[in-house]
Automatic annotation (TrEMBL):
Region (Disordered): 615-640
Keywords, alphabetical: Molybdenum, Oxidoreductase
Taxonomy, superkingdom: Bacteria
Protein name, UniProt field: Xanthine dehydrogenase family protein
Keyword Disulfide bond: no
């Protein structure tokens, strides 16, 4: 039996439970709890004149109705602005229940609690809210025009404005570099709004324990520790009196990092007030209109380059729509503007963005978080340069790559936290070589000619990206070996389907030398681990993975110290194999880890058989022997934290071949290839799964998904009947190859992988469609009818 499982394609241990209906999702909990439902604004922008609840009071089973005026203390204040930034001069967040003004359709106005959800919805339907309808601001250009305001005190609707300028080698500005370049291009690129749309929406279920004056809250969240802190602060409870558990979570993709959602504090508050269990489960329409969206961005590019396509100067101006509120600050346009350069070196760079308010759902990070827009911008730029110069598109890219001997590479930019953006390692030329081979780039022109001879239109596209992953500030791990030889691992961040139960067990099994079957993993439960940041930004593997490895190393050292005493050996001569500590090269001189666990705890229970055996093994403790050796703590357990100096940069390159129908303009993906580098792989099968899921989501963003608002701020496609997502049938087989350039920044040498798949897909498919059709594709998503219209205007 091998316990060296790091790097092995171990099957996901959580899957049998999750795919046979044994997962415990939020709505599986709390049968019999009271149900909450919300009256939400039907208007994009309106003043609340009156709320009349009288008719609802007759509903049998009604328990309570709350409006903003009922909320006490900190609960009545606006929700927190989670990531402030000096450039966000006018950050605004919503109240948990609307106060005077509603700023998007779906904003919660009244909370109803009743015996069950049907009755709560009945009561909602009987509540009359009188509104004075105000002029809504919809669309980026209208918002930037500033004729009407989303927030009265935000002039021009501009919440934030930021410029970053990296001068060229001779100190020239980007403007000077572009103007002086032998060749120049200027164009506009648009990406439309989409959303995370996890299959399980948000949800929260709270139990108040009046005897203990404490709250237990279950939330479908990506950040249980932060939700806990928010609840404690908003409800005025000491932190130890609040516990938050993320049960199985049916996808998050970013939307469940916003915390607290209004419901996440209102439901626990009502549970305490009523001294009853209360639960709220979001329905699909609520999710569309009252959670968050992303992507929507307009980008103007000016680029100057030489005869080889080398970038001498690049100016990018971004107009970002952050919807009605900014709970997550301006993290999305900051990521776009700082990671847009991808694997390339640029002479001089200037990026400027304005972030504007509109009367639409707020914008917060969605898998990829601003990078898909940035990569669309950069990769379309590369393709336009290649087309202009008549060069191969991969040649132009290669001419601009950061080279393997140039790491660490400083792009000269500053990230959200004020730290410099430095790439730690990578090999972009090798990744491109692998990708070209995988997709058959060099032989494609013949394939295209053959297809053309048959009357078929096919095209190929390529896209490259880097992704800052594993951001800090920290994550921790706790590891305990119990007297039955089992290993219990816990970490505070949560899981939404990424396979953490498997990979963290692989790390523990490898570090401790125990069979993986003996390792159990708990995530997202503040009762087990209270200090954590959360799962987002492809950080779990880097952050918790390293923290768990460090905690295991502590425990291993302690186990060896105790075993050495029992075996009368030097700890340096010991190793652990298959759960047994033994003298290297002499397996007969051994002691089970289970026994070591017993020896670590002087309280030897009479009813514990393992303890009895261990006591005999070690001989009776003499009276003058201290019960716990000096400097030791009882128990075979340890905790450690990992806190990186900066992010580690994963990278990748995708290529696709598409076919467009000459008559119907239908777009079909024939092949999709990925070369990905996330440093050392913990589990290649899980990474491939993550990439497949990401590509599928990217295909949705490139070809199908967009939020359609009318001029009144009504979301016209707020259901899965109308919001088009790809089925499995639209997703091609994804061919994947891995490149491993270990990160020098962390002990395990890993980089993140969870968002990579989604990042370049729009850029790659736009390039492939453009190649097939010979029409510039500057806006995503693109549907068959969009393509048809483009053909007509050719
Ligand atoms: N992994 C690995 N080797 C590496 C890097 C990662 O084996 N070198 C594994 C990890 O151990 C983990 C998975 O790949 O099991 C993803 O790791 P990581 O990149 O650390 O990403 P996180 O675990 O932090 O997950 C967050 C990431 C993000 S930001 C979004 S959004 C997203 C995603 O994961 N949301 C998801 N993947 C998702 N997958 C599912 N099923 N559901 C979501 O909501």
């Amino acid at each position: 039996m091998t316990t060296r499982l790091f790097g092995e394609p171990v099957q996901r241990r959580e899957d049998p439970r999750l795919i046979t209906g044994r997962g415990r999702y939020l709505d599986d909990l709390g049968a019999g709890a009271l149900a909450a439902a919300f009256v939400r604004s039907p208007h994009a922008h309106a003043r609340i004149l009156d709320v009349d609840v009288s008719a609802a009071l007759d509903v049998d089973g009604l328990v309570a109705i709350y409006i903003w005026e009922d909320l006490p203390g900190a609960l009545a204040e606006p929700l927190p602005l989670l990531i402030p930034h000096p450039a966000l001069t006018h950050g605004r967040t919503a109240y948990p229940l609307a106060r005077e003004i509603v700023r998007h359709v779906g904003e919660p106005v009244v909370m109803v609690v009743a015996r069950d959800r049907y009755l709560a919805e009945d009561a909602c339907a009987l509540i009359r809210v009188d509104y004075e309808v105000l002029k809504p601001v919809v669309g980026l250009e209208e918002a930037a025009g500033g004729a009407h305001l989303v927030h009265d005190d935000v002039p021009g609707n501009i919440g934030a404005h930021l410029v970053q300028e990296v001068p060229g080698p001779g100190g020239e500005t980007a403007r000077q570099a572009v103007d002086a370049a032998p060749h120049r291009l200027e164009f506009r690129l648009d990406v439309e709004r989409s959303a995370c749309t996890p299959l399980e929406g948000k949800g929260v279920y709270a139990r108040w324990d009046a005897d203990d004056a404490s709250l237990r809250v279950y939330s479908s969240t990506q950040t249980s520790t932060s939700v806990r802190m928010a609840i404690a602060a908003k409800l005025g409870l000491p932190l130890p009196k609040v516990e938050v558990v993320a049960p199985d979570v049916g996808g998050g993709f970013g939307v469940k990092i916003v915390h607290p959602w209004p419901e996440e504090i209102l439901v626990p508050w009502a549970a305490r007030l009523l001294n009853r269990e209360v639960k709220w489960t979001e329905d699909r329409r609520e999710h569309f209109v009252s959670s968050s969206h992303e992507r929507g961005q307009v980008q103007h590019v000016r680029v100057g380059f030489d005869d080889d396509g080398r970038l001498l100067g690049l100016e990018v101006e971004i107009l970002h729509d952050h919807g009605a509120y900014t709970p997550y600050g301006i993290i999305v346009p900051i990521i776009t503007s700082t990671q847009l350069l991808g694997p390339y070196k640029v002479g001089a760079y200037r990026v400027e963005f304005s972030s504007v308010y509109t009367n639409t759902v707020q914008v917060t990070p969605y898998r990829g978080a601003g990078r898909p827009q940035g990569v669309f911008c950069m990769e379309r730029t590369m393709d336009k340069i290649a087309a202009y110069l008549g060069r191969d598109r991969t040649e132009v890219r290669a001419a601009n790559f950061v080279q393997p001997d140039e790491f660490p590479y400083d792009q000269g930019l500053t990230f959200q936290d004020g730290r410099p953006l430095i790439y730690d390692s990578g090999d972009y030329p090798e990744a491109l070589r692998m990708l070209k081979e995988l997709i058959g780039w060099d032989s494609f022109p013949e394939e295209k000619a053959r297809a053309a001879a048959e009357g078929r239109r096919i095209g190929i596209g390529v896209g490259c990206y880097v992704e800052g992953t594993g951001v800090g500030p920290y994550e921790g791990g706790h590891v305990q070996i119990t007297s039955d030889g089992r290993v219990h691992v816990s970490t505070g961040l949560t899981s939404q389907g990424q396979g953490h139960e498997t990979v963290f067990a692989q790390i523990a099994a490898t570090e401790l030398g125990v069979p993986i079957e003996r390792v159990s993993v708990v995530t997202g439960d503040t009762r087990r681990f209270g200090y954590a940041v959360g799962t987002f930004a492809s950080r779990a593997a880097v952050m918790s993975g390293n923290a768990i490895a460090l905690a295991c190393r502590k425990v291993r050292e302690k186990a060896l110290r105790i075993a050495a005493e029992a075996l009368e050996a030097d700890p340096r001569d010991l190793e652990i194999t298959d759960g047994m500590v033994h003298v290297a090269g002499a397996p007969s001189a051994s002691i089970p880890l289970a026994t070591v666990a017993v020896l670590s705890n002087p309280l030897r229970y009479a009813f514990d058989e393992e303890a009895k055996r261990a006591t005999q093994f070690a001989g009776p403790a003499s009276d003058d022997r201290p019960p716990v050796a000096e400097g030791e703590e009882p128990g075979l357990e340890g905790r450690d934290y990992y806190s990186p100096v900066r992010s580690t940069f994963a990278a990748g390159m995708h290529a696709a071949i598409v076919e467009t129908d000459p008559d119907t303009a239908e777009i079909r993906i024939l092949r999709y290839a990925v070369v990905h580098d996330c440093g050392r792989l913990i589990n290649p099968m899980i990474v491939e799964g993550q990439i497949h899921g990401g590509v599928a989501q990217g295909v949705g963003g490139a070809l199908y998904e967009k939020m359609v608002y009318d001029e009144h701020g009504q979301l016209l496609n707020a259901s899965f009947m109308d919001f088009l997502m790809p089925y499995a049938t639209e997703i091609p087989r994804i061919e994947t190859a891995h490149l491993e350039t270990p990160s020098p920044l962390n002990p395990l040498g890993i980089k993140g992988a969870g968002e990579a798949g989604v990042i370049p897909v729009s850029a790659v498919l736009a390039a492939a469609i453009e190649d097939a059709e010979g029409i510039p594709i500057d806006r995503m998503p693109i549907s068959p009818s969009d393509l048809h219209t483009l053909r007509l205007t050719r």
